[in-house]
Design a protein that fits this description.
Helix content: 40-55%
Radius of gyration: 19 Å
Distance between the termini: 57 Å
CATH class of the largest domain: Alpha Beta
Order of helices and strands: EHEHEHEEHEEEHHEEEHHEHH
Shape: globular
Structural class: alpha/beta
Strand content: 15-25%
CATH architecture of the largest domain: Alpha-Beta Complex
């Protein structure tokens, strides 16, 4: 049994050492770390080399899904595992626990529970939302970020529990594992998703092929969150909304296809409003 842990970096010099250390602390015997860098402008590559790694260095940022696919194709381990550079595996037996979960042939993906650096649980077992719920969540997450009924319904019982695995619709790509044959059968992530929702799309395709997605009980990570996108907020907003449009179009069938243009218009309006608000805040802060 061999495991490859892929860490995709972009200006991740600050957090990468802790992520790598958490992998090296695992009890699993045959673990390889593959770092792939999407054209960082800081010293991420130097840090990776100082850690004894040989990073794959892309000349430009090709996006999250495409870079993960590139790294996975360069490895041969039995299990493909993703770990964000700003996340740390919280238990030395986390990888072993994830492999145990995947011993069930009907499970396609296993993801970890997530906690914040303050130790607070963060929802990771997400639901595939209906059109109505998606719209409510999109509106209420702006008007009342964090605590609102729409977002609570969207995430559902998504925190997980330490004593048992939990079947969910999809899990974040922050930390997940798949068997390599299935990863290759599904052709990894759809590279049309430059960033965001490539994980939801993969889980959707797996469900269409009869596989389930599971949120691990014993495996968890600490995630600092948003480190690659915090300096390019408007660009991140664009990619988030573009991916939401792709996913919505991908998952609507039958008569619901007539709602796709309406959803695109709604997402365009929401994106414009958020970009305007974000730009105004930056201008105000710079005064």
């Amino acid at each position: 049994m061999s495991i490859d842990v892929i860490i995709l970096t972009y200006n991740s010099a600050e957090h990468l050492p802790a992520a790598v250390a958490s992998v090296r602390a695992q009890t699993a015997a045959d673990v390889t770390i593959t770092v792939i860098d999407n054209a960082s402008t800081d010293n991420t590559l130097d840090v990776a080399r100082e850690l004894g790694l040989t990073p794959i260095a892309n000349s430009h940022n090709i996006g999250f899904g495409a870079a993960i696919n590139q790294a996975a194709a360069a490895t041969q381990a039995d299990y493909v595992t993703l770990l964000n550079p700003d996340a740390e595996l919280g238990d030395p037996k986390a990888l072993d626990a994830m492999v145990d979960t995947l011993s069930d042939p009907q499970i396609g993906i296993v993801g970890t529970r997530i906690q914040t650096p303050a130790g607070e649980p963060y929802p990771n077992g997400r639901r595939f939302p209906s059109t109505t719920l998606a719209a409510r969540h999109a509106i209420m997450s702006v008007l009342r970020p964090g605590t609102n009924s729409a977002s609570a319904e969207y995430f559902g019982p998504a925190i997980g529990r330490p004593d048992a695995d939990q079947v969910v619709d999809w899990v974040s790509g922050c930390c997940l594992m798949m068997k390599r044959p299935l990863w290759e059968q599904m052709r990894g992530f759809d590279p049309r998703y430059w960033m965001y929702l490539e994980d939801a799309d993969l889980a959707w395709r797996l469900r269409e092929n009869g596989y389930t997605t599971v949120l691990s009980g014993p495996a968890w990570v600490t995630h600092h969150g948003g480190q690659s996108s915090k300096f390019r907020r408007n660009r991140s907003l664009w990619h988030h909304h573009r991916s939401a449009a792709l996913f919505y179009a991908r998952t609507r069938t039958g008569w619901r296809r007539i709602l796709v243009p309406i959803a695109f218009a709604f997402l365009g309006i929401r994106l414009g409003a958020l970009v305007a608000l974000n730009t105004a805040r930056r201008l105000t802060a710079s005064d």
